Amino acid sequence: MSQESGGSIAVTLKRAVGRVADVNVMIRRPLRVGPLLSGRTPHEVARLAPLLFPICGVAHGVACARALDGALGRASSPMDEAARDLACLAEAAVSHVWQLGLSWSEAAGVPEDLVRLRSARQALSALQRAIREGIDGAGGLASVASAVTTLGDILDELTSVEPTLLRVVRDADRAAFGAGASLEIRPFDVRTAGVLLAADAGFAESPEVLGMPMDLSAFGRIHGTPAAHCVAEASGPGLLGRLAARWADARAGMLRLAEALQALERADTALKSRAPVGASAGSAETARGPLVYWVRASEAKVDDVRVVAPTDWTFHTHGAVRTALLGVEATDTLARDVGWFVLALDPCFPWTVAVRDA
Q: What CA–CA distances, in Å, run from 8 to 22, 211, 311, 355?
C-alpha cells in the first residue's frame, strides 16, 4: 500500500541458476515539476508547490519557499524557520503512522490502524491551521503544542512495541535477506545537492555523488547515531536491519518533534535580512529523508525549478535495491521477500515486484 497516486515504482528481477542475475528499478513520476512551475511568478510557484504533492506537500512547500527566499533575498525570522521545521516533522510523523500502522500491518497480515492515522492527520491539520493563524501569541503556541503532543503520543503508542512485521520476517528466516552488499554510506550535504542541481538538470532524476547514488533510506540516515549501533547489533545489515532502522527512525520522530517545539517556543520574530542572489537552493526534511529544491528567479518570474527527492536516491537505478538484491538466492518466496525489502525503504509511490527468468 502506498500513499501517493500518479507515480509508480517497478522492481523487476531476472533469475538464473538459482540466483538473481539482474535487478531493474524504474520510477515513473506523476509530473515534471520544473516545466510545470517554470515561467510563473514566485507567488504562484510558492502557492502551487505544496499542492502538487499529496504526501509530502508541506515539505515541498517549505523547500520551495526557502529556495525562493534565498534567490530573491526575502527575509525570514527564526520563528518562521522554526515553524517550517516543525510543520515538516509533523507531516513526517503522519507518514510514519501510515507506513507502520497500515502498510506494514497489511504486509504482516494484521488489522490496519486507521484510528491512529485519522487522529494523526487531524493533529497535523490543527498544527497547520495554528501556524497559518499566527503563533506569536500564547493561544497560537498552545494550539501548536497540543497538536505536537497528540502526534508524539500516537508515535509513542505505535512504536513502543516491536512491529509485527519484524516478527514475521524472523519467523520466515529472512532476517539476513539482502545483507550481502550495500551502498557506501556517506553524510548527506544539502549544499552539495544544491550545487549539483544547479550545475546539471539531469541530476534531479538520477542523483549521484562521486559516481554513485547515496543510501538515504532510514538505514543510511541513522548511520553513525546511537540508534544505528542498536539496529546493527540486533539485526545486522539485511532486511530485518532495514525494517528495524525504519522503526527506530519513526520512534526518534517523537524526540525530533519535542525538540522542534522547544526551538519554536524560544525563537524570536526578528527578520534576518539577506541579499538577492538570483538562484538558490532550499531544503526540508521528510519521513524519507531530505528534499531539495533549486530555483532561478526574479521578482517577476521563476525561470527554472529543479527538485531532488529522497525517493530519487533510494530507488535509483543503481541504488540500494539493486545493490542489495543482486546475487541473492532466488527462492520460491523471492517476490514476497523483495516486497518486504521495498517496504523497508519506505516507497511513496505504488510499487510492483516482478520475477522473470533470464
A: 20, 25, 11, 17
- Output the nine-digit C-alpha cell for 271: 527578520
Whether 73 contacts 277, CB under 8 Å: yes
Confidence of residue 312 (pLDDT cuts 50, 70, 90): very high
At 24-68, the pLDDT tens digits run 999 998 778 889 999 999 999 999 999 998 889 999 999 999 999
Is 80 exceeded by the pLDDT of residue 2? Answer: no
Question: Per-residue pLDDT tens for 313-328?
Answer: 999 999 999 999 999 9
CATH architecture assigned to 35-315: Orthogonal Bundle (1.10)
Q: Using alpha carbons only, how large is the chain's radius of gyration in Å?
A: 21
Do residues 113 and 102 lie in contact, with contact meaning Cβ atoms separated by under 8 Å? yes
Segments making up each domain of the chain, as ranges: 35-315
Can you tell me the distance from the alpha carbon of 240 to that of 176, in angstroms, rounded to the nearest whole number? 7
**Distance from C-alpha of 221 to C-alpha of 232, rounded to nearest angstrom:** 13
pLDDT at 351 over 50: yes
pTM of the model: 0.93
pLDDT of residue 102: 96
What span, in angstroms and rounded, lies between the C-alpha atoms of 37 and 26? Answer: 24
Residue 293 near residue 37 (C-beta atoms within 8 A): no
What the block records as the C-alpha cell of 226 is 546511537
Task: Give the Cα-Cα-Cα angle 147, 64, 256 (nearest 5 degrees).
Answer: 35
Q: Which residue intervals of the chain are DSSP H helices?
A: 33-37, 42-48, 57-72, 78-98, 104-108, 114-133, 138-159, 164-171, 190-199, 218-221, 226-235, 239-266, 310-314, 320-325, 334-344
Crossing angle (nearest 10°) for helices 239-266 and 226-235: 160
Residues 6+ apart with CB under 8 A from 202: none
Amino acid found at 128: Q
Q: What is the DSSP string of 70-136?
A: HHHT--B-HHHHHHHHHHHHHHHHHHHHHIIIIIHHHHHTS---HHHHHHHHHHHHHHHHHHHH--S
